[in-house]
């Protein structure tokens, strides 16, 4: 539920921000602009959700419909402006996500925590495959940064966001390769899988006793 609410909030922030920047603007232009930023990859905003978000924000009074445009046989396009309530919502969400930090939720980390359930050679191979994919993604962002399209049509800060994506992808790719090397070198402690429950319980007991001797009252959670 928390992840869903976060995704909804970031979508609201992005849509309000784009309408505010381009207003009056219709949904097609908002979608086209966001797709050119590759928001589906780094903001988890699906193109199909943009029109729904526009309609919902209008229903909530955050946006105002200011006209409908009909071009040839294409569907009618409704243009929007940000209302006073929408401006307040935008400013609150903008400050929240500028000043707060929320760690990204990555399903890979859940799977990695269960590494003992996979053969070591498969785990190492999967990590190297992930590293290769991440480097491909980083290469795509780097190529986009150097393109005439980006330099001629996008605000400079969009390029900075792409630089962040490149840095994150390359950093994780390096980690994947180092971790694969560790697994292949036999550093993975298989006894810390299900068979090692007794050993872990004993380790926790020793640590708890050590903390008590040192006068540290904060408990160690098992």
TrEMBL record:
Domain Transcription regulator PadR N-terminal intervals: 15-92
Transmembrane segments annotated in the record for this chain: none
Lineage top rank: taxon: Bacteria
PANTHER family recorded: NEGATIVE TRANSCRIPTION REGULATOR PADR, TRANSCRIPTIONAL REGULATOR YQJI
Name assigned to this protein: PadR family transcriptional regulator
């Amino acid at each position: 539920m928390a992840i869903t609410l976060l995704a909804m909030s970031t979508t609201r922030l992005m849509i309000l921000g784009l309408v505010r920047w381009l207003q009056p603007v219709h949904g097609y232009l908002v979608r086209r602009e966001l797709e050119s930023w590759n928001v589906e990859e780094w903001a988890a905003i699906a193109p199909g959700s943009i029109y729904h978000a526009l309609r919902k924000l209008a229903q909530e009074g955050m946006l105002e419909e200011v006209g409908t445009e009909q071009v040839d046989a294409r569907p009618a396009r409704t243009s929007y402006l940000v209302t006073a309530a929408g401006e307040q919502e935008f400013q609150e969400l903008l400050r929240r996500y500028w000043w707060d930090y929320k760690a990204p939720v990555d399903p890979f980390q859940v799977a990695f925590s269960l590494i003992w359930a996979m053969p070591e050679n498969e785990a190492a191979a999967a990590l190297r495959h992930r590293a290769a994919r991440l480097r491909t993604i980083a290469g795509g962002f780097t190529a986009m940064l150097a393109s005439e399209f980006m330099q001629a049509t996008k605000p400079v800060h969009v390029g900075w966001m792409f630089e962040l994506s490149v840095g994150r992808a390359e950093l994780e790719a390096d980690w994947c390769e180092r971790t694969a090397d560790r697994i292949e070198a036999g550093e993975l402690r298989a006894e810390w899988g299900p068979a090692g429950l007794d050993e872990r319980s004993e380790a926790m007991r020793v640590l708890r006793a050590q903390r008590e001797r040192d006068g540290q009252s904060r408990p160690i959670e098992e």
